[in-house]
Specification:
With 229 residues, this protein is of the alpha+beta class. The protein has nine helices and five strands. Helix 2 crosses helix 3, helix 6 runs antiparallel to helix 7 and helix 8 packs across helix 9. It is elongated and about 65 Å long.
Length: 229
């Protein structure tokens, strides 16, 4: 059904203005961003199809859609250059907003913001990515750097490189992070061994490792909170 045929209070834009964004479903919020559908397919239907599971031709939710690259988006009928650019801009704005928040106050004041930030950066990747959040003396975010890709082991992540990046940014502390494409956030023995190796290496230059966060789509785990640091 075209949006114009819905009752006014059921149309996504009017519903948002009247009741706030939290009242809308993911598909309704996405429909507002997309604005129009295509011949024979309303924008709400298009949004629902984009969010459907991969087996049904969709991206498996908001995270999957917003992390899709330009080539993946270009294969979807109804997503022209303007809509693709808007979707990628939405994700980048969210990343920058969270980065500003983490740069303004200590990360311990906003652990959920840290998790949200890492979700936006890493959770939907199809391969493992190891990243480091570099923090100043007040534990505010200086920068995030993605350092390694591929299966993470003590031999695939080089402590020397992590130490060099910490020194380059004059970081006082770091939070380690990586994703599990499998969807599980349970740390492996390799994750625990790698954490201890990096803690020892960074301690030599007086840089503390505050946490190692593992993320997957819609989930995250803090090794510090689990007593694994």
């Amino acid at each position: 059904m075209p949006l114009k045929d819905l009752p006014p209070d059921a149309q996504p834009r009017e519903k948002l203005l009247a009741r706030g964004p939290a009242a809308l479903s993911d598909a309704e919020l996405l429909a507002i961003v997309l604005r129009t559908g295509l011949a024979g397919k309303g924008v709400l239907q298009l949004a629902q199809e984009l969010l459907s599971p991969p087996a049904q031709g969709g991206f498996g939710g908001i995270a999957g859609l917003l992390h899709a690259d330009a080539a993946q988006l270009s294969r979807i009928k109804g997503l022209g250059p303007a809509k693709r650019a808007e979707l990628m801009a939405v994700l980048e704005l969210a990343r920058r907003a969270l980065a500003e928040q983490l740069a303004e106050r200590a990360v311990f004041d906003s652990p959920q913001a840290v998790r949200d930030y890492l979700q936006l950066h890493l959770a939907a990747r199809s391969h493992e990515v190891f990243a480091v959040l570099l923090l100043d003396s007040q534990h505010r975010l200086i920068a995030m750097e993605e350092l390694f890709r591929g299966t993470l082991t003590q031999t695939s992540v080089y402590p020397r490189e992590v130490v060099l990046r910490a020194l380059h940014h004059q970081a006082s502390a770091v939070i380690l992070a990586h994703n599990h494409p499998s969807g599980s956030v349970r740390p492996s023995r390799a994750d625990e061994a790698l954490t201890q190796t990096l803690k020892s290496a960074l301690a030599l230059v007086d840089v503390r490792v505050l946490d190692h966060v593992i993320v997957a789509p819609g989930a995250s785990l803090s090794m510090a909170e689990q007593g694994l640091m």
